[in-house]
Amino acid sequence: MARVYSDVNARLGPSWYDYESMRIDGNKPDRYEIVRRIGGGKYSEVFEGIDSFNEETCVIKVLKPVAKKKIKREIKILRNLAAAPMSLVMEYVQNTDWKELHATISETEIKHYLFQLLRALDFVHSRGIIHRDVKPGNIMFDRQRRKLRLIDWGLAEFYHPGTELHIRVASRYYKGPELLVGFKHYDYSLDMWSVGCILASMIFRKEHFFRGRDNEDQLLKILKVLGTEEFGRYLTTYSLYLQAYNQELVQSYPRQPWSRFVTSDNRLNVSPDSIDLLDKLLRYDHQQRLTAAEAQAHSFFNIVRLETPSNPAECLSDSGFYSA
């Protein structure tokens, strides 16, 4: 059971989380004009657009034909997170590409980026929702304005204690160990592992800190850093059995000190506080990871905590929908 917000959906009731019975009433998209394609993936295409009502730049997300249940789930989550949902038309954020950002980001920027991300996640978790795909590609960050938006709610799901969840979620480099060993009773802490991976990438200036070729190799990359001793305890604690075809996964590996990853190129981003925060996020046992609220209280964020706006919902995007 999650250490925090475990009863949110039970308390709010089916009207909050029952997306399958939800009715979708869409609006006409004539107000928006597509300018250019800016991205896309398995479930959607994303375009830059113009809102003809106010001439503002926006982002338009066009959903591909997928299971209606999945579309309803995403829209229900967006409705729950937004104060006034209108369309799958989002604000345009002057995003800095991750390839550039991770290699040039300063310690101050890391603090602003991570703190806003944690505020967004605590807001989402407090409403009984797991994002399940936290990664740099789903985070828009305007460096000049230090403005962050967490996007793409296609894999998000409502959390119910004791309910099995799909493990084929999240992007490989940011998958928590629970997914890689087939543990289906995960919770909000899954998102916190992903935050830890992002922090490691930033302070050590690696595009992806754990970069496996496939899921087994991804787990192997984690074992070679965090060691197999704690991993064995984790499996025992939750009565998990590791079924692996890669024989390297059954070998023993010592835990590596974080200092091993410090170089002359990243030294300025590494501090005792950043290492301590990282160590408390990248834990095999999801019950031992910091929650989003606990992470915000960490001394690493002492400087930025007083500078941050009061409304965490400002750090979310994909705030509504229309149907074409």
Automatic annotation (TrEMBL):
Organism: Grifola frondosa (Maitake)
Sites where the protein binds ATP: K69
Family under the similarity heading: Belongs to the protein kinase superfamily. Ser/Thr protein kinase family. CK2 subfamily.
Gene: cka1_1
Locations listed in the record: Nucleus
GO biological processes: regulation of cell cycle; regulation of transcription by RNA polymerase II
Identification of the protein by name: Casein kinase II subunit alpha
EC number(s) stated in the UniProt entry for this protein: 2.7.11.1
EC category name: transferase
Functional description taken from the UniProt entry: Catalytic subunit of a constitutively active serine/threonine-protein kinase complex that phosphorylates a large number of substrates containing acidic residues C-terminal to the phosphorylated serine or threonine.
Alphabetical list of Pfam families matching this protein: Pkinase
Gene Ontology MF terms: ATP binding; protein serine kinase activity; protein serine/threonine kinase activity
Principal subcellular localization: nucleus
